[in-house]
Design a protein that fits this description.
Helix content: under 10%
Radius of gyration: 33 Å
Largest sheet: 4 strands, antiparallel
Oligomer: single chain
């Protein structure tokens, strides 16, 4: 199957700031991880290092490395920059001249290595790494000589940030101190803390106890500055080394303060996509206006393999085309020939779960164009404007159009609901909601009346439920309450309901560890949908056939001959549903659901289910569910 789709990779960063006569003159980027020394600020943009004067202006690119760069840090004398780079795979420590030039790799640890600063004399680079640790990202502080040499563990325990007292013996470290913005207002057991050794004798105590996520300690003068979100938003705070005199230093509410760095007098950080400078003496913070003159090669259009980004696909009702979703766009195309067609043209909106409607001319999909998820109806030929149906659908998980009858779709969502939506009127009706887990599977009968789905009725069991959407959505369970019955599907003629059931308890010993498991606990099952429809696996009701002979279907041959005589297609098969008062005839392998030709069923009940394999198999019970 071919997916020759032309897709554009548009990195929609920010709206450019233009000047008259030069529309690209002051285009902005996304700036992060700043570091400062003297009148220079170095930061990361487009995964490379840039430098700009502290007053702002046009930035100059320092690197053009093949790998991404993060966490730059000026040396105390401002002549070199250490950073974390991925040029050769793992994040490792690199160093380069502050004015630019070749870079030098200093570590070969093969794990996470994040630059945390320098020793006060500038001889070693400090970094956090999970090297030789039992858990990923379990960072401990290490030092490596700036001119190259063996790595030296600092034996300070788990920590990811460190700062030294100016001209003193004190040291403060940040434990679990990641980026609070990635887990806003986290208050759990791995929230960041700051510990301090005031006298340099190796005895650490918590600096301050706040109900927030603390990170990035910086010893500036006689105060320690750090990040915290204990008041709701991440901002700079400071206190004395004794933990007293807590003071809020910045007032950012829209975005968290992130990745601050200090030269001992000033602090630079980024919030949103912009850089800011905080003066510790005056207590004032201002933005740094940065201009990026970049070719922005990553924003140019390019050809990509659509199959790598294929999200879902749905076969045309006549089987000659598909509707698919790739990178948030809806496409339709023939299976073997013809070019793909983009059916939705809305920029900035993502579509999902595209499916053909029964007429084969329209496609229904889920879109987030309005900010909340809605249904979108598109024409495959593009000869009519799209129609959007808004409603309280939640986050749609499954979407199934009715194969016949009125224009309707059934959907499930993260609220564990089954909803049927009338596409003409836009009205939605909630059929059922589980209190325990998400709906497991969704299927329409061929006539578009009955809706089957796996309904979690306890924390450990799932039953197949059948809803009559033509009679007020009456719901009846059709499988027993003892197993996990899921993923239902009707057969094309409406005779059987298939599903997957987790009910085979045949333990197998593990070959490496002395224990028992159930690796083959799932089995396909079926339920005949009429009391007089026998199971196709019941040998007593089948005519003996020689080996290799095709199955004999007299009823199907008669129906095909009749349709050929009439010269027109037969209507969709109707699922025959038995009422509770009807009893299957003796010898029937399973009986369920036959509808009287004159009246609708008063109820539905499962008599017995037959597994899709020989009944003599020891792992398949003869009568698993009553």
């Amino acid at each position: 199957m071919r997916f020759a789709l032309l897709l554009c990779d548009l990195a929609l960063n920010r709206t450019p700031v233009t000047e008259e006569g030069n529309p690209m003159a002051t285009e902005r980027g996304y700036y992060r991880h700043p570091t400062i020394h003297g009148d220079a600020v170095v930061f990361v943009c487009e995964d490379d290092l840039w430098t700009v004067p502290v007053e702002g202006g046009i930035a100059r690119r320092l690197t053009a490395n093949p790998g991404s760069i993060t966490f730059p840090s000026f040396s105390p004398d401002g002549t070199r920059i250490a950073f974390t780079g991925k040029d050769e795979g793992h994040p490792e420590v690199y160093v380069m001249d502050a004015e630019g030039g070749p870079v030098r790799r200093l570590t070969w640890l093969g794990g996470m290595s994040q630059v945390a600063g320098w020793t006060p004399d500038g001889g070693e680079i400090l970094f956090a790494s999970d090297w030789r640790q039992p858990f990923r990202n379990f960072g401990h502080l290490h030092a490596v000589p700036a001119d190259g040499g063996p790595v030296r563990p600092l034996a300070l325990g788990p920590a990811r940030a460190v700062t030294h007292q100016p001209d003193g013996p004190g040291i403060a470290i940040g434990r679990n101190s990641g980026d609070p913005a990635r887990w806003k207002r986290y208050r759990g057991g791995t929230a960041g803390q700051i510990w301090i050794d005031r006298s340099g004798n190796g005895n650490f105590t918590p600096l301050v106890r706040l109900k927030g996520n603390l990170a990035n300690p910086m010893w500036v003068g006689d105060r320690i500055y750090f990040l915290s979100d204990h008041e709701g938003s991440g901002n700079l705070y400071s206190c004395t080394p004794t933990g007293r005199g807590l003071r809020r230093e910045t007032e950012h509410e829209d975005y968290y303060v992130r990745f601050p760095s200090s030269d001992g007098r000033r602090i630079v950080y980024h919030a949103g996509a912009d850089l800011f400078l905080f003066d510790a003496e005056s207590g004032e913070s201002r933005g740094i206006d940065v201009e990026i003159r970049s070719p922005r090669a990553q924003r140019g259009r390019r050809f990509v393999s659509a199959s790598r980004f294929l999200e879902s696909y749905h076969l045309h009702p006549k089987g000659h085309s598909i509707a698919c979703v790739a990178r948030g766009g809806v496409y339709s195309m023939g299976l073997w020939e013809g070019a793909p067609r983009r059916n939705d043209t809305r920029a900035g909106a993502r579509c999902r779960l595209a499916s053909w409607l029964p007429d084969g001319k329209r496609i229904v999909a889920v879109t987030d164009e309005s900010g909340e998820e809605s249904l979108l109806i598109l024409t495959a030929a593009g000869n009519a404007p799209p129609k959007r149906i808004d409603g309280d659908f939640g986050r749609v998980v499954l979407l199934e159009p009715a194969p016949a009858g009125a224009d309707r779709v059934a959907l499930t969502n993260q609220r564990q609901e089954v909803i049927v939506v009338d596409l003409r009127s836009g009205r939605a009706r909630t059929i059922e909601r589980s209190r325990f887990a998400r709906i497991d599977g969704l299927a329409w009968s061929p006539d578009g009346r009955w809706l089957a789905y796996g309904f979690p009725d306890t924390q450990r069991t799932v039953r197949i439920h059948l809803a009559d959407t033509a009679k007020g959505g009456k719901v009846v369970p059709v499988s027993g309450p003892d197993f996990r019955d899921r993923m239902p599907a009707f057969d094309p003629e409406g005779k059987y309901l298939y599903f997957i059931s987790d009910r085979i308890f045949d333990p197998v010993y593990d070959s490496q560890y002395f224990d028992l498991g159930f690796p083959k606990g799932s089995v396909p099952m079926l339920i005949p949908l009429a009391a007089d429809t026998v199971s196709p696996f019941e040998p007593a009701t089948r005519t003996p056939q020689p080996p290799g002979a095709p199955p004999h279907d007299a009823e199907g041959e008669k129906a095909a001959a009749k349709a050929a005589r009439k010269g027109k297609e037969e209507p969709p098969p109707t699922a025959r549903i038995s009422s509770p008062s009807e009893t299957p005839r003796p010898g029937a392998a399973s009986g369920l659901l036959r509808r009287s030709s004159h009246e609708s069923p008063r109820g539905i009940r499962a008599i017995r289910q037959a597994p899709l394999r020989a009944s003599s198999s020891r792992s398949a019970p003869r009568n698993p569910c009553r």
